[in-house]
Amino acid sequence: MSEIDLRHLRSFLAVARQRSITGAGAALHLSQQAVSTHVRQLERSLGVALLVRTSRGVLLTAAGEELAAGGATVVDDVARLAARVRAAASAQTGTLRLACCPAATTLFAVDVADALEAAVPGLRVTLKGAQSPKQERDLLNDGAADAAFMWLPVGDPGLHTRVVRTDPRAVVVSTRHPLADRNTLTLADLADEPVLCPDVLVSPEDERFWLADPRPDGRPAPRGRSVPTVEDCLLEVGRGRGIWFAPQPLHALLPAGNVRWIEVTDGEPFDLAVVWTDSAPQPVIARLIAEVRAVVEGGRQFHEAAASTAQAGAQP
């Protein structure tokens, strides 16, 4: 069977809607002869009769009814595909506004922005600093940012997410805490410790995840004070007023003070994700995800190599 010409299909669909070749021509701003020619060429291409012409207009054959039922979807799909192609082309000369909370992404956000601009000619990536996950979410929902880096869950079903890194869960304790000299801990070790919660999270679901609530045995997590910021949380931990769960990489970015970071071996890890809205340029988002993963993987290999070199140097 020969390929269907979309011009011919559009003419036939107009005839099917109008039940008139004349009416279809008026709707399409084509002559009656042009519409008739298109329909005949379509019938020849398919090898079937689509119309029965009568003195009152036209009737659809069974084959015509089938084509009318499915043809509109085909035309719509092609139109949407064309729109996506044009959006991809326009995105190459546009701007991607990327929100990032320095505590989460300082180690790679600049590298990702540089790599993305190098990979997509004409694209400009702007980094918009956010002080908390709440502010990142607000920037996305207000249309001030196209995408963001956030730890899951984000608590908003209207946002799309793709995990780009998984981080171990750590607990932050005071250096005076009885468990501060341990190299690892379990949630059972911390069962009675009140967990502090900075007021920066985006939803109750998000808060429960950060608190590790409930615990593996089903008991609720003991809740400590709610504090305004992460920095306040660290101060309270340093004074022995509770503990805090956080992704391990934050250890390199937040002031240590009088606290110690210890891995929680049975704690659920944190997934760092690229988060974006429906209005974000989808082809650029796909490239962003690829570049983030490449930068993260490169950083992981670098740190593994550095650790291996340090270990070899320490051997006699």
Strand count, sense and barrel status of the largest sheet are:
5 strands, mixed
**Uncertain residue segments:** 301-316
Radius of gyration: 30 Å
Average pLDDT score: 84
Instruction: Count every beta strand, where a strand is a DSSP E run of 2 or more residues.
Output: 13
- Overall SS class: alpha/beta
Q: For the largest sheet, list the strands in their spatial order.
A: 4-3-5-13-6
- How many helices? The count is 10
| Percent of residues in β-strands | 15-25%
Q: Choose one word for the global shape.
A: elongated
What portion of residues is helical? 40-55%
**Multimer state:** single chain
What is the string of helix and strand elements? HHHEEHEHHEHEEEEEHEHEEEH
- N- to C-terminal separation? 77 Å
Explain how this protein is built.
The chain contains 10 helices and 13 strands. The protein is elongated and about 95 Å long. It is an alpha/beta fold and 316 residues long. Mean pLDDT is 84; it is low at 301-316.
Write the layout of secondary structure elements.
Blueprint: H1 6-18, H2 21-28, H3 32-46, E1 51-54, E2 57-60, H4 62-91, E3 95-100, H5 102-105, H6 109-119, E4 124-129, H7 133-141, E5 147-151, E6 160-167, E7 169-174, E8 184-185, E9 195-198, H8 204-211, E10 223-227, H9 230-238, E11 244-247, E12 259-264, E13 270-276, H10 282-314
Parallel strand pairs: 3-4, 3-5, 8-12, 9-10
Antiparallel strand pairs: 1-2, 5-13, 6-13, 7-11, 7-12
Helix pairs in contact: 1-2, 1-3, 1-4, 2-3, 6-10
